Each structure stands twice: as C-alpha cells, then as structure tokens.
C-alpha cells in the first residue's frame, strides 16, 4: 500500500540529488528525498569542499556561478559552513603563467572577476608558500569553501524545515512507471508513489538498472586524499590550486596555449600515471586537506579499483605538497579515498525511462561546484516550469 503521493521522489541524498530536491521544493512541489545510508557517504563528503567555478569550462562555469549564489543564499538563512575566502591558482613556471594570464582574459570576457597576483603578493597572502615554487597567481575572490562532511547534513536540515520529506536508510530496489505515476519500492518494504522520480545514484551501478549502466560510457574515478593534524594558529585561506591543477582543469583547456603546453609534458611521469594534482584547503578544525589522485575503471568494473590506499601515491602527493607549502606539521590525521562517476564522451549522464523516471549521474568532479546551478535548470526542464 502506498504511503502518500509526492510530485517528486529523488533517489540519492548526495549533493546532486539534494539540490534537485531543493529546487523542486522552491517551485512549490511536494518532494521526498531518499538516502540509502544513515547519511550520505559517497563523493559528496569525501572531497575538499572547494566550490570553484574558475576550474570549469565556459558552460559549467555558468552553473558553478549560479551555485555560488545558491550556497550563499542558503547560508545567509541557515549555517551550511560557507566561507568566502576565494581561490587561487599558483603558477610555478612561465608556461603556467601564460595559462593563467590567458584564463584571466577569458574570465574578463565572461564577466567573472579574477585578479592576477605577483609572486610577492602570493607570498604575502599565503604564509608558508615556498618562494622557489611560486612565480605568480590568479585569484578568484567570489569563490567559497564548505566543510564537505557537514555541509550536506545541514542542507538536509534546511530542506526539512522547508517541508521536504527526507528518509535515511531508505535503499531503493525498484522503480516502476504506472500510467502517469511512478512507484518507488524500498528494501524495507515501504513504497512511495510520485508523479516523477529523479535518480542521482553517484557511482552505485549495481542496484537500479545495472544492465543500462554496464553498457554506458560511464567510468569511475578513485581519488586518494588526506588531512593533516591541526596547524594550530597557522591559517591558509580559501582554496589553493597549484601548477598541476592548471594543467588538468577544464577551464585551462580553453586557453589558446593549452595544447602546445600540454604536448611538452612527459608522458611517463608518476603524476601522469596516477592523475596527481596538488590542492590544499584548511578545514575548520585547523587540519589541512591535501591531495589528490585519479585512477579509473569502467562502470562495469568498479571492483577493479579495490579498497586499498596506495601509499606510493600518498608519498608522492606529500613530497610534492612539501615542495609547495611549509606547514607547521605534515603529520597525517586521516587518509581516505572517494569515488565519483563521469562520462567518457559527455559532461553528465542523463537518461529518461518511461517518461517519468529520470537518471542523472556521472557529473564527475564537478559535483560540489556545479550541482546546485545545474539542478535548477534540470528541474525546470523536467517539470516544464
């Protein structure tokens, strides 16, 4: 027997599912958000908490900039751990300087504020930065950080206050289209009826529609990260992205010199092998989160990535990090890995089943930054409102 009827059931309580629920609620729809675990524990809580539209291509930067406004709007009413301290890309050589200068011109054309910092300005703003490493920087004052392990729970509390029904330990085992409604069957025997269902399943490809995912172009990236013990009174503000990030992020691929500069990179480096680029972000407890790496497997072969942490990868990241920043301590308090799904041939995976069941996943590393803005447009399209 069905409990109650909803306009929308969202499957998956991570950042992508949560913001679909948020925008549906904002449109006046009756929404249920279902999370299979006691709280989300996938990619949404296993990242840096950097909201950096600056790293995205032109299309996704627009979504990211909308996300910034949405995060700030919610935070003004309900603390979701937002800190607006900006982001900086640190250039370590002439090629990287050229790329950040070209990106600044692209940002100017897109009306997105960015400021070139000299070496001296970088060293003044970021104590502990190695003067032998940094040559210049590109700073984005509008960008924010959040605490990834607490933000999503706080947004859920905000949604509850606004009338969204949120169910935890609610594993969905089946969705069925019935005329103009959808039944969503939970493992605990409960069934929900709704006009539409949106499935934001992250990298869980074994439960719902496994055959569909096994033949898709989805792949999963495994990322290793770590956090130091508290740095005491030492402070790093905002998000620090380095030369390896400049050579990896989509935004820089739109720069005129990008392909020429990338072509000069060694193909057999350990950084290339493990997809390493070095980021820093200080958590509210004083520890510094740093990483990360990227290893890949097709959606049908996730288990090939294993559950171990490769200490050679961690050692490489620590070595590179120490070449960039002198922190009071590099003693590691936590190590973990996260997994996110992405498409090989498109920027996000979308599939509609029986008109009223919509799968939205494979957002890749854009989730924390792009989900809030993207979900707003997607809700408008799905409900034609």
UniProtKB/TrEMBL annotation:
Q: Which residues form the signal peptide?
A: none
Gene3D superfamilies recorded for this chain? D-Amino Acid Oxidase, subunit A, domain 2, FAD/NAD(P)-binding domain
Its keywords, alphabetically, are: Flavoprotein, Oxidoreductase
List the SUPFAM superfamilies: FAD/NAD(P)-binding domain
Q: Which residues form the FAD dependent oxidoreductase domain?
A: 7-375
List required co-factors: FAD
Q: Which domain of life is it from?
A: Bacteria
> Coiled-coil annotation: which residues?
none
User: What NCBIfam families is this protein classified in?
Assistant: HpnW_proposed
Q: Which family does it belong to?
A: Belongs to the DadA oxidoreductase family.
- State the protein's name: FAD dependent oxidoreductase TIGR03364
């Amino acid at each position: 027997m069905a409990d109650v009827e909803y306009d929308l059931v969202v499957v998956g309580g991570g950042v992508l599912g949560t913001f679909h629920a948020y925008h549906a609620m904002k449109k006046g729809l009756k929404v249920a958000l279902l999370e299979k675990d006691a709280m989300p524990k996938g990619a949404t809580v296993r990242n840096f908490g950097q909201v950096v539209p600056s790293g995205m291509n032109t299309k996704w930067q627009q979504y990211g900039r909308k996300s910034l406004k949405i995060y700030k709007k919610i935070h003004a009413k309900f603390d979701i751990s937002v800190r607006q301290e900006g982001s900086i890309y640190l250039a370590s050589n002439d090629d990287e300087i050229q790329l950040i200068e070209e990106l600044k011109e692209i940002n100017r054309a897109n009306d997105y504020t960015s400021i070139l910092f000299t070496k001296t300005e970088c060293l003044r703003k970021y104590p502990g930065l190695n003067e032998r490493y940094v040559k210049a920087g590109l700073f984005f004052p509008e960008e924010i950080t959040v605490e990834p392990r607490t933000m999503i729970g706080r947004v859920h509390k905000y949604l509850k206050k606004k009338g969204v029904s949120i169910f935890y330990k609610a594993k969905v085992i089946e969705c069925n289209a019935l005329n103009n409604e959808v039944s969503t069957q939970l493992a605990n025997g409960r069934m929900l009826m709704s006009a539409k269902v949106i499935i934001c399943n992250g990298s869980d490809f074994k439960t719902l529609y496994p055959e569909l995912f096994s033949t898709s172009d989805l792949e999963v990236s495994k990322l290793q990260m770590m956090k130091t013990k508290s740095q005491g009174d030492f402070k790093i503000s905002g998000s620090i992205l380095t030369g390896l990030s400049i050579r990896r992020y989509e935004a820089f691929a739109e720069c005129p010199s990008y392909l020429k500069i990338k072509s000069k990179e060694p193909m057999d480096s350990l950084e290339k092998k493990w997809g390493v680029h070095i980021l820093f972000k200080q958590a509210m407890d004083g520890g510094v989160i740093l990483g990360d790496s990227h290893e890949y497997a097709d959606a049908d072969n996730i288990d090939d990535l294993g559950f171990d942490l490769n200490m050679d990868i961690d050692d490489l990241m620590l070595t590179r990090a120490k070449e960039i920043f002198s922190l009071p301590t590099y003693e590691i308090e936590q190590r973990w890995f996260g997994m996110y799904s992405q498409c090989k041939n498109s920027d996000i995976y979308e599939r509609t089943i029986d008109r009223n069941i919509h799968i939205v996943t494979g957002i890749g590393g854009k989730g924390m930054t792009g989900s809030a803005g993207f979900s707003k447009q997607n809700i408008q399209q799905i409900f034609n409102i």
